[in-house]
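Issue 218. Parser rejects a valid record. Input:
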Amino acid sequence: TEFLILQFFKMKLNNSNNDYEIPYKNLKDGFHNFEFILGDAFFEGFELSEIKKGQIAAAIELEKKTDMLVLAFNISGYVEVACDICLEKFKMAVSTSRVLYVKFGQADQEVSEDVLILAYASNAFDCSHYLYEFIHLALPMRRTHEMSMVSGDCCDIEMIKQLEALKERKSSNLHYWEELKKLK
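Output the parser choked on:
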């Protein structure tokens, strides 16, 4: 969590625009819809992000109540990630829905992963950090070309050959260790 908070503050320094802010203060109570398109520039704003390219559509339905905000995020699109087998980049589909509850208090505070407290003096909510976080949380732990959006996309054959050669070399080195253990 500390890493994501540090990322958020670095991103705030790098992205000084208000492209991902929702100005809720002057909205009437009820439902309001916002849409954001997240491209390469969005991901480049996060220096240490493993994602540098992608095309994401984010629809946010904001329900404004007198004492809180309820934000329903619907995110879909693709991001470019590295294959865990051959390290080649490929496009992976991303789709997720999340809900964030925003209450008001004396100071900004993150209570839990889905509850946030904003200061009473706030006029707008910057949702870029949460968009970034929700996209990353939607990615599976293991990412391979089998998950690619492009049909017929497969691992880099040259890299697979190099990995197999490395395995053979490693297994032959194990043979020497077995011989050394017999000397005891």
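Fixed in the parser; the record now loads. Helices lie at 2-14, 40-44, 128-138, 157-182.
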